[in-house]
Design brief:
Shape of chain C: globular
Number of helices of chain B: 7
Order of helices and strands of chain C: HHEHHHHHHHH
Largest sheet of chain B: none
Helix content of chain B: over 70%
Structural class of chain C: mainly alpha
Largest sheet of chain C: none
Structural class of chain B: mainly alpha
Number of domains of chain C: 1
Oligomer: heterotrimer
Chains: A mainly alpha (598), B mainly alpha (212), C mainly alpha (292)
Distance between the termini of chain C: 37 Å
Radius of gyration of chain B: 18 Å
Largest interface: A-C, 80 and 82 residues
Strand content of chain B: under 5%
Distance between the termini of chain B: 56 Å
Helix content of chain C: over 70%
Number of domains of chain B: 1
Number of helices of chain C: 10
Chain lengths: 598, 212, 292
């Protein structure tokens, strides 16, 4: 199949096959899920959804296998457009339209930067082919190369959701239907990382070390910002979208470290870092896809996305709860699942890098590791909140009480993603060497000495010890320690009137974090008292908000500036056709005069 | 010599168009301008004895002298609009502007194009002036027919310039051009009728109220 | 190979049985300083035995997570103990930092499920405890990781400035992780002051016994790590076990002294406390990069 595609346009190597694997692993379960999700919709809507979905997946595949800058751009645009249409599929909601608009604008800003960079490359290389670009890259003057790097980085970072270009993610991913969100979050933003790896590591050689440092710094910022905003959000899908920002930050930590160490010549560390990044890429695709599908299942059953109104779903939706738990354990990097292996490999990469370097670089690596540790802790906290408030304890609203488990197709889709999450964790001994091979091919080295012995042994060991001990304790309880159990009310300090309103809420759960990070979140509250008379307050409303810093201080002034500029330009356009013809005439006369003078 | 007289007539007809205050006046002076164009092409054809030139000449006569003015006058009668053309700039000032255009095109043709003093230069200046006047008609007249006539005037002038400087455009280009003009007129006839039926006027300066 | 596995299993058993004694020693020390008699040093063993023989009262709102969490916490802490014993520098594998970090992750597995179980019963106490516990532990992680990195980079065979600083940072993290004053009070049941205790408020009987055992073993794990940081190059001498017990005892007594001397901090001050420990760990890393 591969041989009859024309060689000028298509390119197959380890990286593309790896990404094909990622696409296949996520898109097939999502497609199966969508069969169940769209069961009650009209036929027309089903057809449109599936056609768009197929076009989306195909365009992503073609982006990966493009061997040509031009076809890359074409399929990139196609990917963005089809995903836009998928986001606004529910066009009757005003939020969907708004989300789609923000997404479209941001992705086109990114594509504009990409186009600029590609055309500069074409100027120097003479052709659009990757091989020609690779040859020309050696001869590029450093300033041009840096400009290309910055343009490409901004372009890919906008698509990947790196802070500060991430604002479209929390709008677009919640509004899209869940199977689309899982593919967008699991695969599409990884295509941007593919672009970064392809261009910075494989094409624009030799890459100076400061590129890696820049990517690393942006990775750290994205990690922390993403997870802090995720802690504050109580919309299930918006929370997951912010976690995508965080995990892209973690992937970029690995990629940045790989570029940094490759530039300094420490190849084994670079290979390990790239391996960790690629492993986290596929892991995040798996568990984020799984989590989005579970949230879709919850939405289908309850009609709710706000976790403050859910609760107790573990008793009525046990399968969804189990899959969500597996996904939550994966994303919180708990052993022996896959998130643990990839984060642990990233730590190993930082540690090896710190051992091999001196002075400021060592401290930089250690600080990056500390940032990663902090985000890991905060991510686990956020998922305790998400899983606990959604699934555990008592239902907080009528809809949550009446939820029913979702259908077979949806469960199959979720299971098809949950099983790889476990396998990629426990079976790291088989998966990690494969990914290391890909990482070696990406970096262009064949014999980097990277020992994956620990990575293969530890997850299995931990799984065996934990499960073995748990089983031993369970058996001991069952057969030796025959004590009784009494089911009674939760401890209520003697009030006897506890119901779901006295449970802990998600806002309360994340309040310590809101206070700890208040220098960044800038929370504010609004309260309103509605009085009957001076002495009697009939209603008291209290709202607490966090300021969206990037939106408020960066994007809103920009948008306001654009609008005010547009209003000023509008004065040139009074709507009179005579004036427009006069403009044409004046331009023509001016051009003739100009031609006459020169 | 004859050519110069024809050119003078051409230019005079154009100036008459500039000061015209009524639609029928405009259309009739357009007919006069086209007659002069026809005479010019006829003279060129007689000089060079090319069959194509005679065909073109005939086309000019049929289309621009006979058909188009007839069509335009018919529209006027059908939509029964008042004869006032709606001048944005009064006739005296328009004439001054037309004269300024003439001077500017003289400057341009002489200094920038570098043509020597000859027949060609004068004809070129005349055509450039008429192009500018055509633009001016489009800009300075409120009713829709003002724009239509402006476009037709420009087309006339470019045709003249092409035949003076380049010895005529390629035959097929001229045929295509005529066909375009013909189709344009037919469409315009329908549109002006419809516009009048919808808005009860054909005043294009009122299009400003459509602004969002 | 099999020999080393048996040795490690034996060590795990021994240390797991030894662990509650350390808590007993700490409590006895505190009470002695307070000039009280207090319970005996073996009291934790009596507590665990009592709890194993009692019936359980389980909330009606609880799900399978409530049942699973104590078992997972216990299994996690045993696994962490095994990992820490394997990571002893120069013992089984050389990549000790990686294994120690894996041990931290295993402990966070236990903490994840405990926090979930706290939310499971649907009481405000549980939610409050879970929220505070994950809050404190997420800030403790960076400091711990950096301290472990720095210490392992040093090699752990002689007194180094970086090692001592890392040990100091790790000591503060251990105070937070083992729920000691000034971060948390193990002896309180007031909702204003509970962190760990609030999470396990709903537990009784054998589950509570498992949880208590797990927290003793977790404390032992951290004390072992601290002993490597603060007393390097020991434990390989002929009287290895005696020296090791002495080290753990010294750390326990130091912990007791600190618990007596200071008051418990406000919850939001623990962020300051843990970031202070992070900066000490960062200073340790600077010292190590300078070669000290």
């Amino acid at each position: 199949m591969i041989t009859f595609l024309p060689k000028e346009f298509f390119l197959f190597d380890s990286l593309t096959i790896f990404f094909f694997a990622v696409i296949g692993l996520i898109c097939i379960p999502s497609a199966i899920f969508s069969i169940g999700y769209l069961r009650e919709e009209a036929l027309k809507k089903k057809l449109i959804s599936w056609v768009l979905l197929a076009a989306f997946i195909l365009s992503m595949c073609f982006v990966i296998i493009s061997g040509n800058l031009f076809s890359f751009l074409i399929f990139w645009e196609l990917m963005s457009l089809t995903s836009y249409f998928l986001v606004v599929l529910d066009y009757k909601h005003e939020k969907s339209i708004r989300a789609g608009t923000i997404y479209l604008v941001m992705t086109h800003i990114g594509t504009a930067c990409l186009m600029a960079a590609f055309f500069i490359l074409y100027n120097y290389a003479g052709s659009f082919d990757y091989s020609a670009v690779k040859e020309a890259a050696f001869a590029l003057p450093p300033s041009i190369r840096n400009i290309i790097f910055l343009l490409l980085f901004i372009g890919f970072a906008t698509k990947a959701g790196v802070v500060p270009m991430h604002i479209w993610l929390p709008y677009a991913h919640p509004q899209a239907p869940s199977y689309v969100s899982s593919i967008m979050s699991g695969v599409m933003i990884k295509i941007a990382v593919y672009g970064m790896i392809r261009f910075f590591v494989m094409l624009l050689l030799p890459a100076p070390a400061w590129w890696g440092a820049v990517i690393l710094v942006f990775g750290i910022i994205s990690c922390l910002v993403g997870v802090i905003y995720a802690l504050m959000d109580h919309d299930l899908k918006k929370l997951l979208a912010y976690h995508s920002v965080e995990n892209i930050g973690i992937i970029l930590l690995g990629v940045g470290a790989a570029i940094f160490f490759a530039a300094r010549g420490v190849i084994p560390v670079a290979a390990l870092a790239m391996c960790a990044a690629l492993y986290h890429l596929v892991n995040h695709a798996l568990f984020k896809g799984l989590l989005f599908l579970c949230s879709g299942s919850v939405y289908k059953a309850t009609g709710l996305r706000d976790i403050e109104k859910m609760g107790g779903l573990i008793k009525t939706m046990p399968a969804t709860a189990l899959f969500f738990l597996i996904g939550a354990m994966g994303i919180s990097a708990l052993p022996p699942l896959n998130g643990f292996v990839s984060e642990w490999l990233t730590f190993q990469a930082f540690f090896s890098g710190a051992v091999e370097s001196q002075g400021a670089v060592r401290i930089f690596m250690i600080v990056s590791a500390a940032a990663l540790a902090l985000t890991g802790g905060l991510a686990a906290a956020c998922f305790v909140k998400a899983f606990g408030i959604t699934f555990l304890a008592l239902p907080r609203s009528a809809r949550a009480r009446e939820a029913k488990e979702t259908g077979f197709m949806m469960k199959t889709g979720m299971a098809l993603l949950a099983v790889p999450v476990v396998i990629f964790g426990v079976g790291a001994g088989f998966i990690a060497p494969v990914i290391l091979r890909v990482s070696r091919a990406v970096l262009g080295v064949q014999n980097a000495e990277v020992s994956l012995y620990l990575a293969s042994v530890l997850p299995v060991l931990i799984a065996v010890v934990v499960l073995g001990t748990a089983l031993a304790v369970f058996l001991w309880f069952r057969f030796c320690l025959r004590t009784g159990q009494v089911r009674y009310n939760t401890w209520d300090c003697g009030y006897y009137a506890l119901d779901s309103r006295t449970e802990y809420t998600a806002t309360a759960f994340s309040k310590p974090f809101r206070i700890a990070f208040s220098f960044f979140l800038l929370p504010y509250h609004k309260s309103e008292k509605i009085r009957d008379s001076f002495y009697h307050v009939s209603k008291f409303m209290y709202e607490t908000h966090t300021t969206l810093v990037f939106r408020k201080f960066f994007y809103e002034p920009l948008v306001r500036f654009v609008y005010s500029f547009a209003w000023k330009v509008r004065k040139l356009q009074p709507g009179s056709i005579h004036l427009y013809i006069l403009y044409i005439f004046i331009t023509l006369a001016g051009l003739i005069a100009l031609a006459a003078i020169f | 010599m004859t050519l110069n007289i024809i050119l003078i007539g051409f230019l005079a007809a154009t100036f008459l168009m500039v000061i015209a205050k009524r639609i029928t006046a405009l259309v009739r002076t357009f007919r006069i301008q086209s007659i002069f164009l026809f005479l010019y092409t006829l003279y060129m054809g007689l000089c060079q004895q090319h069959l194509e030139l005679f065909v073109v000449c005939g086309l000019v006569f049929i289309l621009k002298v006979v058909v188009i003015p007839l069509v335009l006058l018919r529209i006027m009668r059908r939509i029964n609009v008042e004869e006032d053309l709606g001048l944005l700039i009064n006739p005296q000032l328009s004439l001054v502007i037309a004269l300024i255009f003439a001077y500017l095109s003289y400057l341009f043709a002489h200094n920038a194009m570098g043509l020597p003093y000859s027949q060609a230069l004068i004809a070129f200046i005349a055509s450039m002036t008429v192009v500018c006047i055509g633009f001016f008609l489009m800009v300075g007249r409120m009713k829709a027919l003002g724009q239509v006539i402006g476009l037709l005037v420009m087309e006339n002038a470019i045709f003249l310039a092409a035949s003076v400087i380049a010895g005529g455009m390629p035959f097929f280009v001229e045929i295509a051009l005529f066909f375009d003009i013909f189709v344009f007129i037919v469409i315009v006839e329908v549109f002006v009728y419809k516009v009048n039926r919808l808005f009860t006027h054909i005043d294009t300066s009122k299009m400003q109220s459509l602004k969002g | 190979m099999l020999n080393t596995i048996m040795v490690i299993i034996g060590k795990v058993f021994a240390l797991a049985i030894f662990a509650p004694l350390v808590s007993g020693i700490i409590r006895k020390t505190k009470n002695t300083i307070r000039m009280r008699n207090g319970p005996s040093v073996l009291q934790p063993y009596y507590n665990v035995r009592k709890l194993f023989l009692k019936d359980e009262v389980i909330s009606k709102n609880a799900s399978w997570i409530f049942y699973a969490a104590p078992v997972i916490v216990f299994a996690g802490s045993i696994c962490a103990l095994a990992l820490v014993l394997m990571a002893r520098p120069g013992h089984l594998v050389s990549n000790s930092a990686a294994i120690l970090i894996a041990a931290f992750f295993v402990l966070s597995l236990g903490r994840f499920f405990m926090a979930l179980a706290g939310l499971d019963a649907g009481s405000s106490f549980g939610g409050m405890g879970s929220s505070r516990e994950v809050f404190i532990s997420s800030f403790a992680e960076p400091a711990a990781f950096v301290a472990v990195f720095v210490f392992c980079m040093g090699g752990g065979d002689s007194f180094r400035v970086s090692g001592v600083l890392a040990g100091f940072a790790l000591f503060m993290v251990v105070i937070a992780e083992t729920s000691r004053i000034p971060v948390d009070n193990q002896e309180t049941h007031l909702e204003l002051t509970m962190v760990h205790e609030a999470m396990v408020l709903e537990y009784s009987g054998r589950s509570l016994a498992l949880i208590e055992l797990a927290s003793h073993i977790k404390q032992m794990v951290f004390f072992i790590m601290l002993s490597w940081c603060l007393f390097p190059a020991a434990g390989t001498a002929p009287w290895g076990w005696a020296v090791f017990s002495a080290e753990i005892g010294v750390i326990g007594i130091a912990m007791a002294f600190i618990e007596i001397s200071v008051a418990k901090m406000r919850l939001f001050r623990t962020v300051d406390f843990l970031s202070f420990s992070f900066f000490i760990a960062l200073a340790a890393s600077i010292a190590s990069s300078l070669g000290l």
